[in-house]
Amino acid sequence: MNPEDTASSGCGPLSDLRVGARGRLCDHPGAGPVKPRLVDLGLVPGTPLEVLRRAPLGGPIEVELRGYRLVLRRAEAACLCVNRRDAQA
């Protein structure tokens, strides 16, 4: 997804969301070999989520989705596209 599409659609990487921010998962472009595992964990397009905590210095991000909490590496979160406009979780 190019930057112009991202800005106009309200989508951006999960790693850019602040603590307390909510969004709805759009897509996982280029998640690579971890993509099947992320899908197994419930990270599919349309899933609402909320950022609960962020570790300092580029550490992991804790999110809540589908009634449970999940901790993702910052690099994995950067591969997940989240729509912030459609944040009704």
Mind explaining what this structure looks like?
With 89 residues, the chain is α+β, with helices and mostly antiparallel strands. It has helices at 3-9, 35-40, 74-78; strands at 11-13, 22-27, 48-54, 61-65, 68-72, 81-83. It has a single domain (3-83), classed as SH3 type barrels. It is built from three helices and six strands. The chain has a six-stranded antiparallel sheet with strand order 1-6-2-3-4-5. The longest helix is centred in the N-terminal third of the chain and has 7 residues, at 3-9. The protein starts with a helix and ends in a 6-residue tail after the last strand. The model is unreliable at 1-6 (pLDDT under 50).
Offer a concise description of the structure.
By secondary structure, this protein is α+β, with helices and mostly antiparallel strands. The protein has helices at residues 3-9, 35-40, 74-78, and strands spanning 11-13, 22-27, 48-54, 61-65, 68-72, 81-83.
Output the keywords.
89 residues, alpha+beta, SH3 type barrels, 6 strands, globular
Name the CATH superfamily assignment. Ferrous iron transport protein A (FeoA)
How do the strands of the widest beta sheet line up side by side? 1-6-2-3-4-5
Name the poorly predicted regions. 1-6
What is the helix content?
10-25%
The CATH class name reads: Mainly Beta
User: Strand count, sense and closure of the main sheet?
Assistant: 6 strands, antiparallel
The assembly state of the depicted protein chains is single chain
Strand content: 25-35%
Please trace the helix and strand order, writing H or E for each element: HEEHEEEHE
